[in-house]
Each structure stands twice: as C-alpha cells, then as structure tokens.
C-alpha cells in the first residue's frame, strides 16, 4: 500500500511540475519620463476589428481587402523635453507567413493580415525574431503627442480555400528614451 501511495504521489507531483513549468518573462525600462500609450484610443487590451469580407473579394491569390485604420499614440508625458525627443515604435509578430504578413490562427485558410503604414501604404515585412522599426517621430513641449498611423487589411496569399475567422496578433514596443 505504501508503494502505491508513493507511486501516486510521484505521478501527481510530476503532473503538477509539468503544468507549472511555463516561463513568465518580464520587460521594462527606466526612463526620464513616462507617457501613456493607447491604440486607437482603446484600453489596456486593444483589438482592431476588421469588417467581414466576402470570399468573392478576397478569394483570388494576391487580393487585398477591407483596409482598417488604427493608430498607436504616445502622449500625456510627464516631462516632455524642450529640445525634442525621438520616439520609435517597434513591431514584432510570432506567427508570420512566408510573405511577411501576420498569419491567421483562425479557421479561414490561406488568409493573412497585412499591416501597412498609412503614409507610404507599403506593407511591413515581418521576419521571425526580428522587430520591424517604423518611422521615428519627434515628441517635445510644442508637440506633446506622437502618433503612428497604420492600416490592417486582409490579404490572400494563395487564394482563400476555407471561409472562417481570421485571428492575428503583433506586439508593439514604444521607445522614447
């Protein structure tokens, strides 16, 4: 009976260990000032909703549709510098297509989300493990907000084969040191 209890304890403790073995990372900065960052005026967990698109609009390879504008804004800084300060936005994605777009983890097949800057309308090309740097902006007492303008849109890289949900994500980091 003791061996059975010991075996049960060993199996349970190994299960608990494997469940608790996930890694949690922390990242931060120490800066001269602090600012508030918002995505399209949203809260702490922003979502950019793309409107539904008809398969007939996006069904062929290379088709793009339904551009949706969004912004990443830096403002309400505690002490903007009089001489100006450079603001840099870094974007990174983990699920990327071969063409450098944000891969969908939804149920639609052969569809991705393409991110462009609103100024140039050029697609941002994401690569595994490498951040995409956007245009540097200036932040100063005269201009207390830095606004990065982007567009998200559907892109069919190989012709949509299955209708369904499109879910993608990217991380952003604002540096204003």
What does this structure look like?
With about 180 residues, this protein is of the alpha+beta class. It contains 2 helices and 9 strands. It has a 5-stranded antiparallel beta sheet with strand order 1-2-8-5-4, with no helix packed on it. Strands 3, 6, 7 and 9 form a 4-stranded antiparallel beta sheet that branches. The longest helix is centred in the first third of the chain and has 18 residues, at about 1-20. The radius of gyration is 22 Å and the shape is elongated. Mean pLDDT is about 80; it is low at about 1-20.
Largest sheet: 5 strands, antiparallel
Number of strands: 9
Could you give the order of strands across the largest sheet?
1-2-8-5-4
Count of helical regions:
2
Report the average pLDDT across residues. 80
Explain the layout of strands and helices.
Blueprint: H1 2-19, E1 36-39, H2 55-58, E2 64-75, E3 85-92, E4 102-103, E5 112-117, E6 132-133, E7 137-139, E8 146-155, E9 171-175
Antiparallel strand pairs: 1-2, 2-8, 3-6, 3-7, 3-9, 4-5, 5-8
Keywords:
single chain, 177 residues, five-stranded antiparallel β-sheet, 2 helices, 9 strands, 29% strand, disordered N terminus
Brief characterization of the structure:
The chain is of the alpha+beta class. 12% of the residues lie in helices and 29% in strands. The strands form two sheets. The protein has a five-stranded antiparallel β-sheet with strand order 1-2-8-5-4, with no helix packed on it. Strands 3, 6, 7 and 9 form a four-stranded antiparallel β-sheet that branches.
